[in-house]
Amino acid sequence: MADPAPPAASARAVVILAAGQGTRMCSPTPKVLHRLAGRTLLDVAIDTAQTLGAERIVVVAGAHSPLVAAHAVKRLGEGAISIQNPPLGTGHAVRAAETALAGFTGDVVVTYADTPLLDAAAVEPLFAARRSGAALAVLGFEAADPGAYGRLVMEAGGGLGRIVEAKEADAAERAIRLCNAGVIAAPAPLLFELLGEVTNANAKAEYYLTDVVGLARGRGLQVAAVLTDEVRTLGVNSQAELATAEAYWQANRRHEALAAGVSMPAPDTVIFAHDTVVEGGVLVEPHVVFAPGVKVRSGAVIRAFSHLEGADVQTGAIVGPYARLRPGAQIGEGAHVGNFVEVKNATLGAGAKANHLAYLGDGEVGARANIGAGVIFCNYDGFDKHHTSVGEDAFVGSDTALVAPVRIGARAMTGSGSVITRDVADDALALERGPQVEKPGWASRFRARKLAARSKP
Ligand code: UD1
Ligand code: MG
């Protein structure tokens, strides 16, 4: 039999259960590929496993959702996926991972891909319980309404005796408020040995993972229950539950940002992504959305109603109101990006300004250059993207179309309304527009003619 007492720091593996149907999401997208803070629930679970230092991670997916398997394989490789077909319960699901974990003798933690608020900090204490001598450690919580959760039946000595599923529980057991969060840690050989003894002789005719607790006690092994906050155990089964999880996550993240010195007069209107970096000393005005991949340095201001994704904003820069920074936008020190300006895969040098109504895609703008209202980097010819370069201290007149590939020299200027298709030398003015024609008195003659025609019977 496996030795239940591992060395102080044993190797770790995480088995992520993701074979559920997820039908209550009412969505063609598999449940665990829905996103929380811009990251799929499956990625949240994988990231948690990696934060825990897992050297092996196995995702158990159902045969009904090839997209889930494909996502896991893309992130972790072929060996990291086990298909459970058909799904016959949580114990059966963990057994599906046995082959993938062949030869692994360290600790296995079982988690769910649909409980995104159970982070590494909530799971880590299970390892401490294992180091203190428990053969198995189970994560539990005090449920406000225990409902359908498995109940933790504790023993006089403080250890966990067994878990009884709600459908199996008698009245006294149903009254227990201490519930199973679903996360369990055990040495791999012991876990699979116990799972081999689990039957489906129960109300749901399923193989319950939770039965391993009673089986371990039957062998005289110690089982510990470690408690976490109920809110962390929230399982996502519907769009409403996903929104609840998101709201909880966002509230926490806003709290952290405020504590770190980010000014937010209306924090409840600011949306963060899982990887947003906003340093202390940044002002974030109301209704700002940070999609993934954004870094904002201290001293920058993100004004109201701006949407940022994959962007870097340096100190002293002002972005918005109503700005859109798309992936690859690099806003230099003290640069300004104003209302209805879209920047994609483009760099603005220090002190450069694009204050109104512009599209800057695939290019670079030199330090202190000024981009007038309505300027467009015409980067796409229907097949390929081309590059635009605007030199330092250049002045691009309002409504200039820069047809890429094109380069505007340092200190050069373009006349308003020009369509620039050829490079402009340093210090030159490029002008591309028809000569202005003026017909004296024409407007009043036109008006008189129209009015006369109207007054005819
Ligand atoms: C399970 C626990 C229960 C606990 C509750 C916490 C068991 C028997 N019961 O119940 O004690 O209080 O979670 O939320 O473990 N899954 C598979 N394959 C399967 C069945 C489930 O991968 O065959 C996955 C699901 O996708 C889900 C997780 O396992 O992520 C839990 O399954 P679910 O059906 O929600 O279990 P519960 O009945 O809620
Ligand atoms: Mg459940």
Please provide a written account of the structure.
The protein is an alpha/beta fold. The chain folds into two domains: 12-233, Spore Coat Polysaccharide Biosynthesis Protein SpsA, Chain A (Alpha-Beta Complex); 239-430, UDP N-Acetylglucosamine Acyltransferase, domain 1 (3 Solenoid). Helices cover 21% and strands 28% of the residues. The chain is built from nine helices and 32 strands. The protein has an 18-stranded parallel β-sheet that branches. β2 and β3 (39-40) form a beta hairpin. The protein starts with 11 loop residues before the first strand and ends with a helix. It binds uridine-diphosphate-N-acetylglucosamine and magnesium ion. Uridine-diphosphate-N-acetylglucosamine binds at residues 17-20, 60, 84, 87-90, 92-93, 112-114, 149-150, 163, 165, 179-182, 208-210, 235.
User: What is the overall silhouette?
Assistant: elongated
What is the CATH topology assignment of the largest domain? Spore Coat Polysaccharide Biosynthesis Protein SpsA, Chain A
* Number of continuous helical runs: 9
Instruction: Supply the helix-strand structural class.
Output: alpha/beta
Let me know the CATH homologous superfamily of the largest domain: Spore Coat Polysaccharide Biosynthesis Protein SpsA, Chain A
* C-alpha Rg (nearest Å): 31 Å
Q: Report on the biggest sheet.
A: 18 strands, parallel
Helix content: 10-25%
Average pLDDT over all residues: 96
What percent strand? 25-35%
**Number of E-state strands:** 32
Q: Hetero groups bound? A: uridine-diphosphate-N-acetylglucosamine, magnesium ion
